[in-house]
Amino acid sequence: HGLFNEQSSFIAQGLFPKPPQLLQPDHGVTDDPVGEIYWKVKNGIRLTGMPGFVDHLSDTEIWQVSQLLVNADQLSPNVQQVIRTPTPAH
Length: 90
Fold this sequence. Notes:
This protein is an all-alpha fold. It is 38% helix and 0% strand. The chain contains four helices and no strands. Helix 2 packs across helix 3. The longest helix has 12 residues. The protein is globular, with a radius of gyration of 13 Å. It starts with 9 loop residues before the first helix and ends in a 6-residue tail after the last helix.
């Protein structure tokens, strides 16, 4: 989906349909019902670049990601800062 406030990666630029920018106002999936987001995260979207995460995330983690995305336009500035801060590589 790309990094915050940066150009899309070469991979994202080559995908069709274009992946939505997440966690940005007026973009992404905040207008989708949380159940639809859950289904997309769990199962992926066929014939697009969206993989399913059913084998990599627990059901609880998929719901947590879904709730984060549906409420992305309502996150406090502190939470936004934490999400946007890159974590060091180990």
